[in-house]
Amino acid sequence: MADETYPMPSQGWTCFHCGDHFTTPGAAQDHFGNTPMADPACRIKVGEERGLVMALRRAEAELERYRADDSDMAREMHGMRAAHTVALRDAEQLGYDRGLADMRKHGWRLADEKLEA
Question: For labeling, which of 1, 8, 33, 37 is most exposed (least CB within 10 Å)?
């Protein structure tokens, strides 16, 4: 589990609702959910509907990411905004450099270079 708040118990996890024992983090997360507020799978499912529980857990995790504004779309938008900012800064620097080159070509200098006409 990526968000562990404590190390994995040496004996694994046991559900006090159903008594099932889990020795891997993935199986425990599927059963107990992604957050402490999630209902354990034994209280959700009827029979052996593990696939339904796993789909529910994926949906819960995705919803949690959306609530945290951490969706794939939000990440892509932040990346595009950062790339756009860099491109604007580079274009501005290029224009400034060209302006300086044109100024010097016509004999002008910057203030610290003793501006002359």
Answer: 37
